[in-house]
Amino acid sequence: MPKRVTGSKHHLKRLAAPPFWPITRKGFKWAVKPSPGPHPIDQCIPLLVIVRDVLGYAKTAREARKLIGEGHFKVDGRVRRDYKFPVGLMDVLEVAGADEYYRVVPHPVRVLTLHPISKEEATFKLCRIENKTMVKNGHIQLNLHDGRNHLIKVSDPMNPVEDVFSTYDVVKLAIPQQEIMDHIKFEKGVLAVTIGGKNVGRVGKVIDVRQVFKKRDAVVTLVTDKGEEFRTNLKYVFPIGKDKPLISLPEECFE
Question: Would you give the distance in Å from CA 151 to the centre of its chain?
Fold first, then answer.
């Protein structure tokens, strides 16, 4: 992943902005600093930058802020009027009235990119389970990568048969209802895309997992469709399907 962005709590200079943001570095001094939200600053793109610099719906920040304030853009099925809203990994962006849908996915060159998707595919998103906690009455709370928390109710806390989830598994959520539609278990043979490191954006099948200390630092070996093997940390592995990907990705991810 790109280096961690530091500096002022309220402002961000363009030279200090994440390198994958599609903005000029010397034309102007300041960039939009994302609001605190579901994604950290080095793993997201502000909504204003997407509207102005990626999609080209505006030429200036003033125009982009006006369009966003009028409610023309939805993120994960909900209208977002904050021009600083952080749009990050696996988020679904909809341009209301234009019948355009995009998903933020990892890319081998751009790190994060907006990939056009169909209306049917825009009805769900994939979320990775980062942590699990037990809450009141023995129910299980899944803490997902985009800041969401999903409650799994169990009938018997001493024998929680409903809890079939593990960290680094992926759930398929309906948006905006946030209901679990499917569950992708992280295991050997699963298809995954890397979301960080030098192999960011590459898609492969998991063939080996070696854990020495912490689970998140386990070394995962993947193999591409062309038979090329590569390795990365488990924290960079994002399962996307069992036999075939549940989401569409750019062609560059399969090369």
Answer: 20
Place of tokens 């549940």: 246
Spatial CB neighbours of 21, under 8 Å, sequence gap ≥ 6: 31, 45, 49, 53
C-alpha–C-alpha distance, residues 91 and 76, integer Å: 6
Residue 118 CA to residue 101 CA, distance in Å, equals 6
Q: Of 209, 204, 208, whose CA–CA distance to 192 is shortest?
A: 204
Residue 207 near residue 190, CB atoms below 8 Å: no
Contact, 127 vs 179, CB < 8 A? no
Distances in whole angstroms, Cα of residue 234 to Cα of each of 171, 197, 248: 17, 11, 22
CA distance 227 to 123: 33
| pLDDT tens by residue, 129-186 | 999 999 998 899 999 999 999 999 998 888 888 889 999 999 999 999 999 999 999 9
Predicted confidence band of residue 7 (pLDDT cuts 50, 70, 90): low
pLDDT at 205 over 80: yes
pLDDT value at position 3?
55
Residue 15 CA to residue 30 CA, distance in Å, equals 8
Pairing of strands 229-233, 219-223: antiparallel
Backbone φ and ψ of 16, nearest 5° = -95, -5
